[in-house]
From TrEMBL:
Residues 119-202 form the Beta-ketoacyl synthase-like N-terminal domain. GO terms for biological process: secondary metabolite biosynthetic process. InterPro entries: ACP_syn_III_C, Ketoacyl_synth_N, Thiolase-like. SUPFAM superfamilies: Thiolase-like. Residues 282-360 form the Beta-ketoacyl-[acyl-carrier-protein] synthase III C-terminal domain. Pfam families: ACP_syn_III_C, ketoacyl-synt. This is 3-oxoacyl-[acyl-carrier-protein] synthase-3. Keywords: Acyltransferase, Transferase. One of its GO terms (molecular function) is acyltransferase activity.
């Protein structure tokens, strides 16, 4: 088995950062009324800026595959030519189409010659699953290198025309503000962007990051779907897919809008997250105090202190001073968040040889979690 190193990291954030005051102009006002939920959600998530693949005239500037292509091309240098990529593994929760696969579309834009492609599906963990496929390919010796990506282009899903039916009862927010989380909150959290890692079997570059191990856990056997799109959730908890509805119902029921069962989220996301964290680090004999940088992908700062408290409750406390996050600046970029977070840390000048970095990615779709431990070489 080979050792595997992240030897280069890149990111692509489209256009300019969008402030909280500009969001509704970009995404559109629903039913001619400013969102009552927006202020509630932004106060909780504490995101200040985010990025959209939409220009100042309201035109789309990139699709998801194009965002990913831009991030991959930033990896090119004298040590990596386009036609030298042996594996392209691309994760996203917002592909541009059902078929062809996301990685196939990215490869089509890259035009870099023949290569193996892989497209893990899912939500935020799809980016980590893309990384794990590349990690295992290089580790097993199947390839000498792999380019792994996470990306999202959710702005087009968040535009007002998608949510007209979903939010027609917006006036009930004043009576029960939690509906803002159920119906409206994803519009004020999600961001567009892409990140890419180059994996190699030799420690190249200034501060290569050795991937020590990766672990993943799903709780779908215990819990019903929490975040979903392309389906309607029935009273029983069963997800009825779009393909079982007449086509005239797709827009009337906003079947392709992203939705979140917030009650289910609040009851489970942190408890199961720390439970899986304990399993991962105990399996590999890692103690919380061994971790120099903890990079948690969280959707909102609303969960930050609650996550810390749950760590204390389960005796796996990682001190605050070891946490590294950039949610307030870039927003929730889903599958790309962990790539963009690690790129910022690696570019900060803070890392020293021997530092241990723990990547932690939850996925609320049906509660899955992915982890990776890195060592700075």
């Amino acid at each position: 088995m080979k050792e595997v190193y992240i030897t280069k990291i890149s990111k692509f954030l489209p256009n300019r950062p969008i402030s909280n005051d500009e969001m509704e102009e970009k995404l559109g006002i629903i039913d001619g009324k400013s969102s009552k939920g927006r202020r509630i959600v932004l106060r909780n998530n504490q995101i200040k800026t985010r990025y959209y693949a939409i220009d100042d005239n309201g035109n789309n500037t990139h699709n998801n595959a194009q965002l990913t292509k831009e991030a991959v091309e930033k990896l090119y240098d004298d040590n990596l030519k386009p036609n030298e990529i042996e594996l392209l593994s691309c994760g996203t929760s917002s592909p541009d189409q059902i078929l062809p696969s996301h990685a196939a579309m990215v490869h089509g834009f890259l035009k870099n010659g023949n290569t193996e492609i892989n497209s893990p599906s899912g939500a935020c963990c799809s980016g980590m699953n893309a990384l794990k496929y590349g990690f295992l390919a290089v580790k097993s010796g199947q390839t000498k290198n792999a380019v792994c990506t996470g990306s999202e282009r959710t702005s087009s899903w968040m535009k007002s025309d998608t949510f007209e039916e979903e939010l027609k009862y917006l006036n009930t927010l004043e009576e029960n503000p939690i509906l803002a989380f159920n119906k409206d909150f994803l519009r004020w959290m999600l961001s567009d962007g892409a990140g890419a890692f180059l994996l190699e079997n030799e420690p190249k570059g200034d501060l290569p990051l050795k991937i020590e191990w990766m672990e993943g856990y799903s709780y779908a056997h215990e819990l019903e779907a929490c975040m979903y799109a392309g389906a309607d959730k029935l009273e029983s908890g069963f997800l009825k897919p779009w393909s079982e509805y007449p086509s005239d119902q797709w827009s009337k029921k906003s079947l392709f809008a992203m939705k979140q069962d917030v009650k289910l989220l609040g009851e489970n996301i942190l408890v199961k997250g720390v439970d899986s964290l304990k399993m991962a680090i105990e399996k590999h004999g890692v103690k919380p105090e061994d971790i120099d940088y903890y990079l948690p992908h969280i959707s909102s700062y609303y969960f930050k202190e609650k996550l810390y408290q749950e760590m204390i409750n389960q005796n796996v406390e990682i001190p605050w001073e070891n946490w590294f996050m950039n949610l307030s600046k870039v927003g929730n970029v889903g599958a790309a968040s962990i790539y963009i977070m690690l790129e910022e840390l690696a570019s900060s000048g803070k890392l020293k040889k021997g530092n241990k970095i723990l990547l932690s990615v939850p996925e609320s779709a049906r509660f899955a979690y992915a982890y990776a431990l890195l060592t700075v070489c």
